[in-house]
TrEMBL record:
HAMAP family: MurC. This is UDP-N-acetylmuramate--L-alanine ligase. The keyword Lipid metabolism does not apply. Keywords: ATP-binding, Cell cycle, Cell division, Cell shape, Cell wall biogenesis/degradation, Cytoplasm, Ligase, Nucleotide-binding, Peptidoglycan synthesis. Residues 42-140 form the Mur ligase N-terminal catalytic domain. Pathway: Cell wall biogenesis; peptidoglycan biosynthesis. One of its GO terms (biological process) is peptidoglycan biosynthetic process. Belongs to the MurCDEF family. It comes from Agromyces badenianii. Cell wall formation.
């Protein structure tokens, strides 16, 4: 493989510019903070993210005046504006209206944000987004979906299944549910389904009735400090569930958590022979089909989304619906209607026989699952991964593991630079940490300049190939450049 020449000063390293004069401390949720009885007019700082925009949508539906700001425009912001939200692009103290009653912030926000500082000076209640969501949930029968991977898909499957069964749940998901076109909605039923965020411990805020744990793969150790502390948080989350805990029987971390639970009602799911809800006979050659054994009966389904991991996600969603008292056969049939969520193996276009997909995968386990799913549908084509490492701490911790799964599952890999998110740059930590760990250096190129990365990708692509961007940062923004480069190369 030809390695592209790199300029000394890349022009498209837009994700890792040093944050001058910023504190290296982001906002953490205060689990003891008091939620105001009346939220009034609500201002969201960082309103464009999937979680924040979903909560803002529900606030608008509940009759609140909603204002907000974010660093860039997006489809989420356009949708909120259409519903009546007033949103500014860029962070500035002037964005905070004089009549604001409550401020909602994302955990990715830096503490020197001017709107956040002004809210503190005014003495306004400042709620982490998880607290704002807790206020919306109050009094409902809550299904909380947690886990290092699979939360968004599992939440979407549960919501899709409930709607197919005639239920009318409220929900907040981490991605847009394709057939609904939204990541959140208010329903009239008693059920509320949320993707619960374990990254900063905020999933412990919720008064959960049914807890689903998809897996407990070590992650977010920058917050928890150790694997044991990470797993203990899941133990607390599960034991607090009022009715039921549904937990993976296959994942090593989930099994350790299960052994420590004191909850009286625990249901396991997975491929293990001793799983209460056992999934087997998984076929990935074409649409994913599988069977589920439960309470002495066997049920079968074919999904609309690819990947072996999604058969297992479906089994977890099935266990939740059955645990809620819903009909097993109808529950599985409803789950099978799920057509995916935004940024999960999402097709953006095909040029000259080369298809360009985007996926949110940002942990080695997720990358392996996404690429394995792609392998089942790419046919004779190759997989070209465009990987954007997410956060410096995760890149340092998992550089070797990322290299191993990318080399195993992708035919070619282009590594971009690190998306720092809430972290300041760390000297020596770049995308090269991943590319340098490939056993076969001819199958990887580290290209921090985005336009050069797009051009290089187009130069090696062939008819039938899948190009897949991977990461939960802003890597999706390179997709137009990839499509443009393919047009020039193959058009």
């Amino acid at each position: 493989m030809r390695r592209p020449a790199h300029p000394k000063q890349p022009t498209a390293r837009i994700s890792t510019a040093p944050r001058k004069k910023r504190r290296t401390v982001t906002i953490k949720p205060d689990l003891s903070a008091q939620i105001p009885a009346e939220l009034g007019a609500v201002h969201f700082i960082g309103i464009g993210g999937s979680g924040m925009s979903g909560i803002a949508r529900l606030m608008l539906g509940a009759g609140h005046r909603v204002t907000g700001s974010d660093v860039r425009d997006s489809d989420n912001i356009a949708a909120l504006r259409a519903l009546g939200a007033e949103i500014a692009i860029g962070h500035d103290a002037a964005n905070l209206p004089d009549d604001t009653d409550t401020v909602v912030v994302t955990g990715a926000l830096w503490q020197d944000n001017p709107e956040y500082r002004l809210a503190l000076e005014r003495g306004l209640p400042v709620l982490h987004r998880s607290l704002a969501l807790a206020a919306l949930i109050a009094g409902r029968r809550l299904v909380s979906v947690a886990g290092a991977h699979g939360k968004t898909t599992s939440t979407g499957m549960i919501v899709t299944g409930l709607l197919a069964l005639g239920e009318d749940p409220s929900f907040v998901n981490g991605g847009v549910i394709e057939e609904l076109g939204v990541s959140s909605a208010s329903g009239d039923g008693e059920l509320f389904v949320v993707e619960a965020d374990e990254s900063d411990g905020s999933f412990l805020l919720y008064d959960t009735s049914v807890a689903l744990i998809t897996n407990v793969d070590p992650d977010h150790l920058d917050h928890y400090g150790s694997r044991d502390a990470f797993e203990q948080a899941f133990v607390q989350f599960a034991d607090r569930a009022r009715e039921l805990v549904v937990v993976s029987s296959d994942d090593a971390g989930a099994k350790r958590v299960t052994e420590r639970l004191s909850h009286p009602r625990v249901v396991t799911f997975g491929e293990s022979a001793d799983a209460d809800v056992r999934v087997h006979s998984i076929e990935t050659d074409g649409p994913v089909s599988f069977a589920v054994d439960h309470a002495g009966r066997t049920f079968r389904a074919t999904l609309r989304v690819p990947g072996r991991h999604n058969a297992i996600n479906a089994a977890g969603a099935f266990a939740v619906l059955v645990g809620l008292g819903l009909d097993p056969e109808a529950s599985l049939a409803g789950i099978a209607r799920f057509a995916g969520t935004g940024r999960r193996f999402e097709l953006h276009g095909t040029v000259g026989g080369v298809s360009v997909y985007d996926d949110y995968a940002h942990h080695p386990t997720e990358v392996a699952a996404a690429l394995a799913a792609a392998r089942t549908v790419v046919g004779a084509g190759r997989i070209i991964a465009v990987h954007q490492p997410h956060t410096y701490s995760r890149t340092q911790t998992f550089a070797k593991e990322f290299a191993e799964v990318l080399e195993q599952y992708a035919d070619e890999t282009i590594v971009l630079d690190v998306y720092g998110a809430r972290e300041d740059p760390v000297p020596g930590v770049t995308g090269a940490l991943v590319s340098e760990r490939f056993a076969d250096p001819s199958r990887v190129a580290y290209v921090p300049d985005w336009q050069q990365a797009a051009d290089y990708t187009a130069s090696i692509a062939r008819d039938g190939d899948f190009v897949i961007t991977l990461g939960c940062g802003d890597v999706y923004r390179i997709v137009p450049q990839l499509l443009g480069s393919l047009e020039r190369e193959r058009g």
